[in-house]
Design brief:
Elements: E1 10-13, E2 17-27, E3 30-37, E4 43-47, E5 54-55, H1 63-71, H2 82-95, H3 98-114, H4 119-139, H5 144-155
Antiparallel strand pairs: 1-2, 1-5, 2-3, 3-4
Helix pairs in contact: 1-3, 1-5, 2-4, 3-4, 4-5
């Protein structure tokens, strides 16, 4: 299914976060969205046809469900070795589902309560947290600091 997006529309670019469609171009008989990723000095071109790299932010009515999901402390920590978990986390981040990203955040937050996160774990934790803050602030049209504060409360 192809969703048509408009120029200047904010979208979720899987694994990267919020992006804005700054142009639509044609190259080699294919049409592309040109995306500018927020908080990064980088642009990407993604094909319009059969595009699975971008999606619309979650609707505003989903926001409370995300916070409830994050607040739920019923988390089963994976027992696999770190290399396997790293691959799983990376796949979930690339998937782009906010629930997958939130599950990473929950797992690493619980791990953080029991031991100091490794450098790689901490990096993924911060990336997951930032992706959630970005999407929820765009979905709710609110300040990212307010979203971060509420997220911190949910993680306590």
């Amino acid at each position: 299914m192809t969703t048509n997006y408009k120029l200047n529309e904010r979208v979720i670019f899987r694994g990267q976060g919020i992006a804005e469609i700054i142009n639509i171009v044609e190259r080699n008989n294919l049409n592309y969205y040109v995306l500018k990723v927020f908080n990064k000095d980088v642009q990407f071109m993604v094909p319009i046809e059969n595009n699975t790299s971008i999606r619309k932010p979650i609707p505003e009515e989903e926001i409370d469900k995300i916070f409830s999901f994050i607040e739920d402390k019923d988390v089963l920590l994976p027992k696999s070795n770190w290399n396997k978990r790293l691959r799983e986390y990376t796949d979930k981040l690339k998937n782009g589902s906010i629930y997958d990203v939130a599950s990473i955040l929950k797992e690493l937050n619980l791990t953080k309560e029991n031991k100091k996160l490794s450098f790689s774990e901490d990096k993924i934790y911060k990336q997951a947290k930032e992706l959630i803050i970005q999407e929820l602030s765009v979905s709710d049209n609110t300040n990212s600091l307010d979203v971060e504060k509420k997220l911190q409360e949910c993680l306590k």
